[in-house]
Amino acid sequence: MTILDRFEGNIAVIEKDGVSLEVSRGYVAENACEGDILTDIGGRYTVDRAATEERRRKMREKILELIRKNHD
Question: How far apart are CA 46 and CA 41, in angstroms?
Answer without folding.
Answer: 7
